Amino acid sequence: MYDQLKLDNQLCFRLYTAARLTMQAYWPYFELLGITYPQYLVLLVLWEKDQQPVNDIAKRLYLETNTMTPLLQRMEKAGLVKRVKGEKDTRQRIVCLTDKGKAMEEHAKVIPDCLSSQICERGVDVANVSDIIPVLDELIEGLHKNAIK
User: Fold this and answer.
1) 124: closest CA among 25, 44, 6?
2) CB neighbours (10 Å) of residue 71?
3) pLDDT, position 91
4) Maximal C-alpha separation, the chain
5) Rounded (5°) CA angle 115-119-122
6) How far apart are CA 128 and CA 14, in angstroms?
7) How many domains does the chain have?
8) Above 90 in pLDDT, residue 1?
9) What is the distance between the alpha carbons of residues 83 and 74, in angstroms, rounded to a whole number?
């Protein structure tokens, strides 16, 4: 067997498993709010800055606009956001938080601390988790640049 083909030597396995288990830990909080993880990400972007074009949200989340459309349609149906035509370019769609979407921020503000507590309870040093964020950002940027060539 080739060493480079051993499961323990695969970065992708660790990233996939960490992501899957992290989403599993988030799930109870999202279930209480009646949202999915991708919807949470859109809300995070809009809580930072409301009224953004679909393309800007997609770029921020490293998603394609054709992925955003059904996601935003579901969020609009749930009453979290509304999409309006752009003033300068009517082909552009601007995504705005509704009152319900804005109010959800108050309920969601506890999620990061709750997750940090769960991580600590499982014996993981939260500082170590924070330390890997810049490394992951570098990896994401490098892979994203490669993907768009």
Assistant:
1) 25
2) 20
3) 85
4) 61
5) 140
6) 15
7) 1
8) no
9) 12
Range of the domain at 79: 37-98
On whether residue 106 sits in a domain, the answer given is no
Phi/psi of residue 81, nearest 5 degrees: -140, 165
Token duo for residue 118: 């769960």
- CATH classification at residue 81: 1.10.10.10
Task: Give the separation between CA 10 and CA 114, rounded to whole angstroms.
Answer: 30
Specify whether the CB–CB gap between 5 and 38 falls below 8 A. Answer: no
Task: Determine if the pTM surpasses 0.85.
Answer: yes
Tally the residues of the chain. 149
User: Is 139 a domain residue?
Assistant: no
User: Is residue 116 assigned to a domain?
Assistant: no
Query: pLDDT per residue over 104-145, tens digit each?
Result: 999 999 999 999 999 899 888 988 989 999 999 999 999 998
Residue 149's pLDDT band (cuts 50, 70, 90): low
73 is a domain residue: yes
Q: Say how far apart CA 65 and CA 1 lie, in whole Å.
A: 42
What tens digit of pLDDT does each residue of 18-32 get?
999 999 999 999 999
Given a cut of 60, whether residue 6 has pLDDT beyond it is: yes
State which amino acid sits at residue 64: E
